[in-house]
């Protein structure tokens, strides 16, 4: 049985200009210990799908579908019922640590409250556990630094604290939403390596949300590529890297710098911009940016699976 099974998840937002269809019916499953990467440009619906599943949408947002965690539908739960799962069973690391941490509370207080609420530990036990988690994510001198406030840490250190907080209750699923976006390149590599290490060591399932296919390898077993609120390709990491089928997936891969190729190789850029979600085009959402578009693309393609299980939403014939 899947640890998490999501079916026909849809998310929309009421705005003064109309209804934005942010997520248009996605399906995926996650097995215990499995890693899934959700990849796509900003606005593709990656983060909103996860926030909807956890009941964290903005006030003007609404969601439908099924998100079954261990045979319990998260989408049907009340906020009070979801509170029992958030942090304890499913933890989420957000991309901006400065807005995720309370600037008025010490790191110790923020971490200890999480442990005491979800695990019922005494204050001293919770403090010891919090210090050990900071040590696990390589915060130096954690016994002293835990008493400090968020502004006293660098961006990379704050992100490490968020990872430690996500691991405090040993959740079954860890969701990391662009955990390296706000950091410089050197720190990005350190945080990406740290995420890989803690996921592998803990054996928990993970969902990595990213726009960069370059950080997926080594973290995830499967990759789901999203565009304009839909899944356009879904397969194993090996399939997506070595046999990408959708023109959008190929464009994302071609835009990643490669150290094993000539220095003068020109990076590929996908032309144009994602469609306006208030006024989606008919047919394939990607056709106006696709160099392979033809007459059939005026009709919206379905998401179909090949014999290998790789799923594709495209009218083009699959590669052999």
Radius of gyration: 20 Å
Alpha carbon gap, first and last residue: 32 Å
Major sheet: 8 strands, mixed
Tell me how many strands there are.
12
Low-confidence stretches: none
Question: What integer is the average pLDDT?
Answer: 89
Order of strands across the widest beta sheet?
6-7-8-3-9-10-12-11
Task: State the name of the first-level CATH class of the domain at 30-52 and 80-89 and 171-312.
Answer: Alpha Beta
Kindly identify the CATH topology of the domain at 30-52 and 80-89 and 171-312. Answer: Rossmann fold
Shape: globular
Class by SSE composition: alpha/beta
Number of helices: 10
Could you name the CATH homologous superfamily of the domain at 30-52 and 80-89 and 171-312?
Answer: P-loop containing nucleotide triphosphate hydrolases
Which range best describes the helical content: under 10%, 10-25%, 25-40%, 40-55%, 55-70% or over 70%? 25-40%
H and E string: EEEHEEHEHHHHHEHEEEHHEE
Relative strand content: 15-25%
Q: In CATH terms, what is the architecture of the domain at 30-52 and 80-89 and 171-312? A: 3-Layer(aba) Sandwich
Short description:
The protein is an alpha/beta fold. 29% of the residues lie in helices and 23% in strands.
Describe the protein in words.
The protein is α/β, with parallel strands linked by helices and 320 residues long. Helices cover 29% and strands 23% of the residues. It has a domain at 30-52 and 80-89 and 171-312: P-loop containing nucleotide triphosphate hydrolases (Rossmann fold, 3-Layer(aba) Sandwich), CATH 3.40.50.300. It has 10 helices and 12 strands. The strands form 2 sheets. Strands 6-7-8-3-9-10-12-11 form an 8-stranded mixed β-sheet, with helices on both faces. A 4-stranded antiparallel β-sheet has the order 2-1-4-5, covered by helices on one side. The longest helix has 18 residues, at 185-202. The two termini are 32 Å apart.
């Amino acid at each position: 049985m899947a640890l998490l099974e999501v079916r026909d998840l849809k998310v929309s937002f009421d705005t003064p200009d109309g209804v934005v269809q942010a997520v248009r019916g996605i399906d995926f499953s996650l097995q215990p210990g499995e890693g899934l990467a959700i990849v796509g440009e900003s606005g593709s619906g990656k983060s909103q799908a996860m926030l909807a599943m956890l009941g964290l949408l903005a006030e003007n947002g609404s969601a439908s579908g099924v998100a079954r965690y261990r045979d319990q539908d998260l989408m049907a739960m009340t906020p009070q019922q979801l509170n029992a799962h958030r942090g304890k069973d499913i933890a989420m690391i957000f991309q901006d640590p400065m807005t995720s941490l309370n600037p008025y509370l010490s790191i110790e207080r923020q971490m200890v409250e999480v442990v005491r609420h979800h695990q019922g530990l005494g204050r001293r036990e919770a403090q010891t556990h919090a210090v050990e988690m900071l040590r696990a994510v390589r915060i130096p001198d954690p016994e002293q630094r835990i008493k400090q406030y968020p502004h006293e840490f660098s961006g990379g250190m704050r992100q490490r604290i968020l990872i430690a907080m996500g691991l405090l209750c040993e959740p079954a699923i860890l969701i990391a939403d662009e955990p390296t976006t706000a950091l410089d390149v050197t720190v990005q590599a350190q945080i990406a390596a740290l995420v890989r290490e803690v996921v592998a060591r803990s054996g928990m399932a993970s969902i990595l949300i990213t726009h960069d296919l370059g950080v997926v390898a080594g973290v995830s077993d499967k990759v789901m590529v999203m565009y304009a609120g839909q899944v356009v390709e879904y397969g194993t990491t090996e399939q997506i890297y070595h046999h990408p089928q959708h023109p959008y997936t190929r464009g994302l891969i071609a835009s990643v710098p490669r150290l094993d190729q000539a220095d003068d190789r020109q990076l590929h850029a996908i032309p144009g911009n994602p469609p306006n979600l208030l006024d989606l085009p008919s047919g394939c959402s990607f056709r106006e940016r696709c160099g392979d578009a033809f007459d059939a693309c005026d009709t919206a393609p379905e998401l179909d699976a090949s014999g290998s299980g790789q799923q594709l939403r495209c009218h083009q014939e699959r590669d052999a």
